[in-house]
Design a protein that fits this description.
Radius of gyration: 29 Å
CATH architecture of the largest domain: 3-Layer(aba) Sandwich
CATH superfamily of the largest domain: P-loop containing nucleotide triphosphate hydrolases
Structural class: alpha/beta
Number of helices: 19
Shape: globular
CATH class of the largest domain: Alpha Beta
Distance between the termini: 85 Å
Number of strands: 21
CATH topology of the largest domain: Rossmann fold
Strand content: 15-25%
Length: about 575
């Protein structure tokens, strides 16, 4: 398949057997969605063939589903059912995804349209599911539900997604689309990066050998031609073939370069909320929230769709006033907002004018003027795309344009609303590195669990009914802390409940040998656990550990979490026994 004069796919292949779980990976613009559409029979290839086993059912989930031709969401979902399919499953899936079937297409949000499209492709229990970015616009509960649903289905999967956690959980094989060619390995996504690096290193060695051979043959052509005409003609033809092979040996495209434009240093306090509350139509959105955001923090706001994440963001930025409480913003804030809808982009404006603001041919980044073509290349755009209207770019390309525009502006506060939507994995990695080195403050709304874990220093989570709780660390840290908090609440309830009289009298009489032994040994155990925690924290203090040794980073993180959990349990047990000892002594 070629788009214009540029080849997009060059002899690419993909095969799916019953029950297989494939993830299709590659850069934005590498042709992943195009290959999936060809496989689904939606568009024809310029060359090649598509074969589907007779009787096999295939369902395709597009990135941007169109429901405009249907009366409501139920009619849309039922239109995907085939003869003999269970019509009640359509209603069941809609209900599981938070829809009732009466929603009008014109009134649907992006997340609701994506949920309806998911219900439509899942309802028939097809033999093959082709899913293009299924988690876009979904909240965390919906992503967790989708992961469990796909795990339980017998359908074969071909999955395009930026959600690393989903890919690692579901995939059993990888198809890597790179420079028009599809490579495959029978391993899950967790092995992708190591495999990709091995392939690229081998290609680099092969190109080096080819270049050396070409130099030797050209040297022979200049100085070593003899009278043996027949042999020389054959060698000369081989030299022409070698030159052609060298020209066709396309190396990997240049990497994305993300550099932010630093603004002035903001005050130490970026935003302070004290006992802030806000309601709409009698429904509490925020209730008695108190938090401080300091310079350098990376704060994630997470919760289900409709919880009020965007409203909370506007509250913290002072865009809307609370019903009660106080919001104070820090000094010298220079804010840049990256919105998920890409609404800041005019679809009719050419790419180059979008980046320059229509003011010329240069972009100022980091205090230096750069030609717009060079800046475009940093974000993997070809020079011939300069006059391309933004509206015809793919979703991932528009995401890169939004990043390019935002990062060219001076800032000390970045507001990111679903920044991971439509971005390829390589761009995501570089965005994570940029945010880690960004000297200012970052506040982001995201449903990408891996991205939250890698970027955030704290998260503010919706507990429901307008209650928001702040947790240290990323998404996984929040889950651990919420689990511990739930256990603590249960323990407090158990303590508060009156024990039976017989049990109280028995407990008050004496301590068992086991209890006495635990009371004596627990302090030493807590000391050892504290030493282990300090040791693992020293390891994790190395900012380059993740890049240098991912396995050591993961092991240290797991050991730290286990030690902290064990220490909390030991302290709670020791306190309980100490109170019992004092009660008996009294």
């Amino acid at each position: 398949m070629a788009l214009g004069s540029a080849p997009l796919l060059t002899g690419a292949e993909i095969s799916v057997s019953p029950g297989e779980r494939l993830c299709l990976v590659g850069r934005n613009g590498s042709g992943k969605s195009t290959l999936l559409k060809i496989a689904a029979g939606l568009i024809p290839a310029d060359k090649g063939s598509v074969f589907i086993q007779p009787g096999a059912t295939v369902r395709y989930l597009p990135q941007e589903p169109d429901l405009s031709a249907y009366a409501n969401t139920l009619a849309y979902v039922e239109s995907g059912l085939g003869p003999g399919d269970d019509e009640y499953r359509a209603r069941y899936l809609l209900e599981q995804l938070g829809l009732d079937g009466t929603e009008l297409p014109a009134n649907l949000s992006g997340g609701e349209a994506r949920r309806a499209a998911l219900a439509r492709v899942l309802a028939p229990n097809p033999d093959i599911l082709l899913l293009d970015e299924p988690t876009n616009h979904l909240d965390l509960p919906a992503i967790a539900w989708l992961e469990a649903e796909l795990s339980s289905m017998r359908s074969a999967l071909v999955l395009i997604s930026h959600d690393r956690r989903l890919l690692e959980s579901l995939s059993r094989a990888i198809v890597w689309l790179d420079r028009g060619i599809a490579r495959r390995i029978e391993r899950g996504f967790a092995h992708f990066e190591a495999w990709r690096d091995e392939v690229l290193e081998q290609e680099e060695r092969d190109r080096h050998k080819l270049d050396r051979k070409l130099v030797m043959e050209e040297d022979w052509l200049r100085y070593g031609v003899t009278a043996r005409r027949k042999r020389n003609v054959k060698r000369l033809a081989g030299l022409h073939d070698l030159r052609e092979k060298t020209r066709q040996a396309r190396g990997p495209a240049g990497g994305v370069r993300l550099v932010s434009q630093e603004g002035e240093i903001s005050g130490k306090l970026v935003a302070v909320a004290e006992n802030v509350s806000l309601s709409f139509d009698g429904r509490p959105i925020v209730k008695n929230l108190t938090t401080r955001i300091l310079r350098g923090d990376r704060v994630g706001i997470i919760g289900p769709n409709g919880a009020g994440k965007s409203t909370l963001l506007k509250l913290l930025m002072g865009e809307i006033a609370p019903d009660s409480g106080e919001i104070r913003l820090g000094a010298s804030l220079q804010t840049v907002i990256l919105d998920q809808s890409r609404s800041s982009l005019d679809p009719d404006v050419p790419l180059a004018d979008t980046l320059t603001g229509g003011t010329g041919s240069h972009v100022e980044v980091g205090g230096q003027k750069r030609h717009v073509i060079g800046y475009m290349k940093d974000f993997l755009f070809a020079p011939e795309q300069a006059r391309t209207p933004v509206g015809v770019l793919s979703g991932g390309e528009r995401g890169r344009v939004t990043l390019a525009v935002a990062l060219a502006k001076p800032s000390n506060l970045l507001i990111l609303d679903e920044p991971t939507n439509d971005l390829d994995l390589e761009t995501l990695e570089l965005l994570q590195e940029l945010l880690a080195e960004y000297p200012g403050t970052v506040i982001l709304v995201s449903h990408d669990r891996d991205f939250l874990d890698r970027v955030c220093t704290s998260v503010i989570h919706s507990e429901g009914d307008g209650v928001w709780t702040e947790y240290a660390g990323g998404y996984s840290d929040m889950l651990n802390q919420r689990g511990g908090a739930a256990k603590a609440v249960e323990a407090e309830r158990a303590k508060a409940a009156p024990a039976p009289a017989a049990a109280r009298s028995q407990q008050a009489r004496k301590m068992s040998f086991k209890d006495k032994h635990a009371l004596e040994t627990l302090p030493r155990e807590m000391e050892k656990l504290s030493s282990e925690i300090a040791k693992q924290r020293r390891l994790l203090d190395d900012p380059n550990l993740y890049k240098k040794n991912r396995a050591a980073f993961d092991a240290a993180t797991a050991a730290l979490t286990a030690a902290e959990t064990a220490l909390a349990a030991a302290e709670e047990r020791w306190l309980e026994l100490e109170m019992l000892r004092e009660e008996i002594g009294a």
